[in-house]
Design brief:
- β6, α8 and β7 form a beta-alpha-beta unit.
- Strands 1, 2, 3, 4, 5, 6, 7 and 8 form an eight-stranded mixed sheet that branches.
- The protein is built from nine helices and eight strands.
- It is globular.
- The longest helix has 14 residues.
- It has 254 residues and is an alpha/beta fold.
- Bound molecules: pyrazine-2-carboxylic acid.
Length: 254
């Protein structure tokens, strides 16, 4: 928790009341040339060529970060394997052809209040995780590598709150995610990542609420608690009109 202190001190004193957008403009994430933004040439060309036919669909990869996989502060079983599988798909033209936009969300905590606890209940409070600009908040290596070759937009969330949903975050263009997607003609989103029963669920529920045709690809998610995973996939998400599938889509499928 001590690593938080310099940030909170800085922001409370210099920028109070701290605003995520203000902060976002001035701070670069690891390996970024422009804060929060990673757009790479080769993959860019590849993707824009491939997607000259607009699909109106975005992929949202939720929180595939070191602290959420084996060895991390809030490890979710299967996280490393999931990261590897997603990385392979991000290099697969059939899969990528389905999407106009690839969004990577990351939990990016500075001072999220009671979201962090020394005695977490693992329902509403958690061990310190994904502190902004620490290795635990970085994307898991295969994903970190894979996304350097494609155009992605990063969404940071949870600077000063729990922000389970990517729609509570801010894109690298300093816009809320829903508006970002709408302005680029996105009508449908596929949601994958970690954790099925928390950030994936919250992101998918918000996506549906925002009017996107929303699908959770359950086979590309890992979760924390078996009961709440089942509750999410079988009850809460379908009740909100979210499609849940295990089929990994390739272009034209699903
Ligand atoms: C998450 C618990 C706490 C998630 C984030 O990414 O699902 N879960 N913070």
């Amino acid at each position: 928790r001590s690593t938080l202190f310099p940030y909170t001190t800085l922001f409370r004193s210099a920028l109070a009341p701290a605003k995520a957008t203000t902060w976002q403009k001035s701070v670069k994430g690891p390996g970024e040339t422009t804060p929060g933004q990673r757009i790479y040439n080769k993959g860019d060309e590849h993707m824009s060529e491939q997607n000259s036919r607009k699909t109106g669909r975005a992929l949202i990869v939720v929180d595939v970060q070191n602290d959420f996989v084996e060895g991390g502060a809030l490890a979710v079983t299967g996280g490393n394997d999931l990261a590897a599988r997603i990385a392979v798909l991000l290099k697969d033209p059939d899969f990528m052809g389905r999407y106009d936009q690839i969004i990577l969300t990351r939990d990016w905590h500075i001072d999220p209040g009671s979201h962090f606890s020394d005695s977490p209940d693992y329902v509403k409070s958690w061990p310190v995780h994904c502190v902004a600009e620490t290795p635990g908040a970085a994307f898991v290596d295969p994903l970190e590598q894979a996304h350097h070759n494609i155009k992605v937009t990063i969404v940071d969330k949870g600077m000063f709150d729990d922000a389970y949903s990517g729609f509570q975050g801010i894109t690298s263009f300093n816009t809320p995610l829903a508006g970002f997607l709408r302005s680029r003609g996105v009508k449908a989103v596929d949601v994958v990542g970690i954790a099925t029963d928390y950030c994936v669920k919250a992101t998918a529920l918000d996506a549906a609420r925002e009017g996107f045709d929303t699908t959770v690809i359950a086979s590309l998610c890992v979760g924390i608690n078996p009961d709440s995973i089942t509750q999410a996939l079988k009850v809460d998400l379908p009740a909100a009109g979210v499609n849940v599938t295990d089929t990994i889509p390739t272009e034209g499928a699903v």
